[in-house]
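Researcher: Structure prediction, please.
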Amino acid sequence: MNKAFTKEDDGSTAPQRLDDLPISPHPNYVTPRGLAQLEGRAEALETEITRLRGAAEDPETLYPLAVAERDLRYVEARLASAHLVTPPEGAYPRVQFGATVDVLNEDGAPASYTIVGEDEADPGAGLIGAPSPLARALLEAEVGDIVEWPRPSGMVELEITAIRKAS
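Model: Predicted structure follows.
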């Protein structure tokens, strides 16, 4: 094989630069809690980068440093593009970003979902990102409406039973 196509370890301890993480093409709406989480993550990454740079003579810190720097670039880009959506005063007349929605599925099983920004999403905790198919199905619905949620296993109907401020 031609030597031009091989990568040999030259013993260099120059810091690596990892490719940036992909940024969503969707508007970056954030709740107050989501914005605070991003700010906290940025602060934690800055602290970690400072710690890792302090140990720069240790080659074992080069990759973790590159990961932390890449992650900080991502968080800073998300903070720069964040559109804070504050909850409305009073009741929610229909499902909006930041609202918690109580639903019943076709079998009568209850569930609650809170529509949040992509970086705050945690489906296991009922926090769903606004661009998700479930959030898109719920947005603008009112109590009593039945919405159709397209899933890979087929369409699911959900009845909106309550809309409230996220806790």
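Model: Residues 26-84 form one domain.
Researcher: Thanks, that helps.
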